[in-house]
Amino acid sequence: MRHTAPSLRALARPHAVAVSRAPLPTSAAALVSARALTTSGPAQAVKDFASAFLHGSEEAKEEMRVQHSKLVGRHKYVHEFQKHKVLPQHVEQYKEKIEGYYRGIHESSEFDARLTGSWEIVVGEVDSFSHIWEYDGLAGFERTKTAIRESRGHLQFFNQEILPLLDRRTSQLCSEFKFFPVVDPQEKGGIYELRTYDLKPGSLLEWEHEWRVGLEARIAAGHTPIGAWYAGIGRLHQVHMIWHYESLEARRDRRAQSWEQDAWSNTVSKRTVQLMCLPAIQTTRLLTSMQSQILKPLPYSPLR
């Protein structure tokens, strides 16, 4: 059944509303671990800026960075993307341990951090888990990391109980796009898709402008947006988008419907080579690579 989807503007989170720190869903195993952790412009303008950044003077490059911050980012919050590659034989043990550890941080007033979501990657880099944390700016991120290092139990628990289960891990700090803030916690069931785009250096503003034009069409076709971020620290020139679907079949159907929307097809391939009937690349010409992964929310995830 088709549902009328909200516009991008209607999805924006009000700046004045305080973010709730609701308790995470609880499992008996997690309670045991948690108790152990208790402690005290216009298109041409965009292209001109991009050109200045790539080829202009140092002054032009600095202006570009300032404009980038004003035009693209929403800097009230900083989101940390944590990725854990778990040793295959320890996946179930990891799920139990990380729930208790993250619950202790999310629900504690000691830490200026809120868990946005925790997912297991089921299609893509399997035996891996993606976690997104929200902080009140870079200062909140730094305060939280310092508090965890100085706390009694949290750092020790991670090093002794979780770290031996991991093959590797990464951390990346990202900012929300102004036009695509992350949704509030909700329980929807189904699956999530994490799409990651590696952009050519200096192309973020142009990509954002072109991509935003087609998003209304995707929403009109029944896609449910969760959030969109661009990297600021860590691996750079990277954009993440998360979408929610009832199932893989629903995802396939929604994507097919999107291509029936001129606004979407024109965003990805703006001009048609008439003789060959082949699309000339638009947003894709700004990319070096892209990746799609299917995520299953963990039971305690605020987005699930």
UniProtKB/TrEMBL annotation:
GO terms for cellular component: mitochondrion. Residues 96-175, 192-302 form the NIPSNAP domain. One of its GO terms (biological process) is mitophagy. It holds the Pfam family NIPSNAP. It comes from the Eukaryota. InterPro entries: Dimeric_a/b-barrel, NIPSNAP, NipSnap_domain. Belongs to the NipSnap family. This is NIPSNAP domain-containing protein. It comes from Rhodotorula paludigena.
